[in-house]
Structure prediction request, 88 residues.
Amino acid sequence: MTLYRLRLVEELIEGDTGEFIVEAKTPGDAASVLLTAHAEAREKDSNHVVLPDGQSQHIEPDNIIRTRLFCMLLDDDGNELYEIDPEA
Prediction:
């Protein structure tokens, strides 16, 4: 039998949503407005997203929407070689 050095990894993906009505030329432009507002909120260390027209939503990811569990094979120095996904 061979000895293997492994790292067990558990990832949690949390989510929250908020709906906005955005006037723009394209869906991509509308998304850009939302993403900019979100970035501005994060710069202020806030979860309160506010659009230029005053619409706002409190976006605080705290609902676990997915969990992922896998192992990472490591070399003798602890460097990651590849993932071993139990679902694969």
